[in-house]
């Protein structure tokens, strides 16, 4: 049966970059969710994925024609510490879907052990699968570059975490799964041939207009500034911005201990594994710059004059702050109905200070930006804002009413564990139409509903 037009150009790259293998079969795969719209946009028929063969492919029990399953090798700086022993420990790149709009990776997450699993079982349970499905689709609806959820299947098997939990597999779509850590690993190994092959492959796929490592780095800076500014304009905290969780395509990837803030504060950290606050909301731009610097460093071995390349790349990293400020203004000022000018940027930053000092809910406050706040500086701020003649239609288009809040996600997961999928369907319908009022999903959590920590869930 034809599902998609598959190839896998990544499988032709040197063996140092991947390990070809099949998924571990599961006992009783059942379709939990299918993204019909995404299937169609990639040239497929949703009905084909609802057949026994289609579900088997989504579970890894069967391989579609043209696909070449493989696990990708990469390293990464995890909380600042270099680790060369990473890679796809619970995921397989099934193949590349060839469409009129380019190639898109199809990956299974939770498909069993790979060469890079270390002590892990390579599986996923329904909780993190649901979380990634809901949040990645919400991000897509909000216009944020992101990996997408194509499908989720349950496996008919329990896996052990703190106790037995139902197993599941997520099918993820991405422009590619090439990470900063993919480049770092080959540079660390000193395998210039593999590094060059990876670079050529990546440039052809993601940087077709770049003619050298400096132009690639410049585009990386632009993409990451824009991406992180988009995150922050929505109150989003990735939670684990390790270099192995940063794509060179500029898409958001790996929705582990991530969150959309409820109460705004720049030092907010909800990730249970971020004990030092390295990836706090307000630290995200500086971490992005640090990660790009690691990427740039990994390209140096490809330069004819490496000393000159280091000097040029260091100078290029000096442009990050100005580009970041421009990206921040480009995404924050419209939330106030303003164009990104110096005065508008000042207005935006003053308002965030007021929000932090009043404990305002990030999403609700912006969704009703014209509502007053009780703060000693608010009246002066409002007068200055009004003097800039804000266009409230622009503000309405920039401020979502609904985000995937953690307490709702947790409730959906608990219902799914109890074999009730209705809350998942209801929440998915709400978060994929974020500028519409959805009653329950439009409200901030009550104090007793707030989730104070998020977990990786792997």
Protein architecture, described:
The protein has helices at residues 36-41, 46-49, 52-59, 126-141, 180-189, 192-206, 213-233, 284-299, 306-317, 320-332, 342-358, 362-367, 378-387, 392-398, 406-417, 422-431, and strands at 6-7, 18-20, 30-34, 70-72, 76-78, 81-83, 91-99, 102-109, 124-125, 148-160, 164-174, 236-237, 259-260. Helix 4 crosses helix 15 (406-417). The strands form 4 sheets. Strands 1, 3, 7, 8, 9, 10 and 11 form a 7-stranded antiparallel beta sheet that branches. A two-stranded antiparallel sheet has the order 2-4. Strands 5-6 form a two-stranded antiparallel ribbon. The model has no long low-confidence stretch (mean pLDDT 96). With 458 residues, the protein is an alpha+beta fold. It has a domain at 6-174. It has 16 helices and 13 strands.
**Share of residues in helices:** 25-40%
How large is the radius of gyration? 22 Å
What would the average pLDDT be, to the nearest integer?
Answer: 96
Briefly note the structural class of the backbone. Answer: alpha+beta
Strand content: 5-15%
**Distance N to C terminus:** 32 Å
Low-confidence stretches: none
H/E topology pattern: EEEHHHEEEEEEHEEHHHEEHHHHHHHHH
Biggest sheet layout: 7 strands, antiparallel
Write down how many β-strands occur, each being a DSSP E stretch of 2 or more residues. Answer: 13
The tally of helices reads 16
Task: Choose one word for the global shape.
Answer: globular
Binding site for Mg(2+): 245, 254
Function: Nucleotidyltransferase involved in the post-translational modification of proteins. It can catalyze the addition of adenosine monophosphate (AMP) or uridine monophosphate (UMP) to a protein, resulting in modifications known as AMPylation and UMPylation.
Binding site for ATP: 87, 89-90, 109, 121-122, 172, 179, 254
Organism: Marivivens niveibacter
């Amino acid at each position: 049966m034809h599902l998609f037009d598959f190839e896998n150009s990544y499988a032709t790259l040197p063996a140092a970059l991947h390990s070809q293998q099949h998924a571990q079969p599961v006992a009783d795969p059942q379709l939990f969710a299918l993204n019909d719209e995404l299937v169609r946009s990639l040239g497929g028929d949703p009905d084909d994925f609802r057949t026994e063969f289609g579900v088997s492919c989504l579970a890894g029990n069967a391989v579609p024609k043209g696909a070449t399953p493989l696990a990708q090798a990469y390293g990464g700086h995890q909380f600042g510490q270099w680790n060369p022993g990473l890679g796809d420990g619970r995921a397989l790149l099934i193949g590349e879907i060839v469409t009129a709009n380019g190639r898109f990776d199809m990956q299974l997450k939770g498909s069993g052990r790979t060469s890079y699993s270390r002590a892990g079982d390579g599986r996923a349970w329904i909780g993190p699968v649901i979380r990634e499905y809901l949040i990645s689709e919400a991000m897509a609806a909000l216009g944020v570059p992101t990996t997408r959820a194509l499908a989720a299947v349950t496996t008919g098997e329990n896996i052990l975490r703190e106790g037995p939990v139902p197993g599941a597999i997520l099918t993820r779509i991405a422009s590619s799964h090439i990470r900063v850590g993919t480049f770092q690993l080959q540079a660390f190994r000193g395998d210039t041939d593999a590094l060059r092959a990876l670079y050529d492959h990546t440039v052809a796929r993601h940087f077709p207009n770049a003619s050298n490592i400096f132009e690639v780095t410049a585009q990386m800076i632009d993409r990451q500034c824009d991406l992180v500014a988009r995150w922050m304009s929505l109150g989003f905290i990735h939670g684990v911005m390790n270099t192995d969780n940063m794509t060179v395509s500029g898409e958001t990837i790996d929705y582990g201990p991530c969150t959309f803030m409820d109460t705004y504060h720049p030092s907010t950290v909800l990730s249970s594994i971020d004990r030092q606050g390295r990836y706090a909301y307000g630290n995200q731009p500086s971490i992005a710059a640090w990660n790009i610097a690691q990427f740039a460093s990994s390209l140096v071995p490809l330069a004819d004059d490496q000393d000159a390349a280091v000097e040029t790349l260091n100078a290029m990293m000096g442009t990050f702050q100005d580009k970041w400020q421009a990206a921040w203004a480009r995404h924050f000022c419209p939330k106030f109905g303003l164009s990104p000018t110096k005065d508008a940027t000042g207005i935006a930053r003053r308002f965030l200070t007021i929000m932090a000092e009043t404990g305002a809910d990030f999403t609700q406050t912006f969704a009703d930006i014209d509502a007053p706040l009780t703060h000693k500086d608010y009246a002066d701020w409002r007068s200055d804002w009004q003097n800039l003649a804000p266009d409230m239609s622009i503000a309405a288009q920039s401020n979502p009413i609904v985000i995937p809040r953690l307490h709702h996600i947790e409730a959906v997961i608990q219902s799914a564990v109890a074999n009730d999928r209705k809350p998942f369907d209801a929440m998915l319908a709400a978060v994929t139409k974020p500028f519409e009022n959805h009653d329950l999903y439009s409200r901030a959590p009550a104090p007793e509903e707030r989730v104070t920590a998020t977990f990786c869930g792997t």
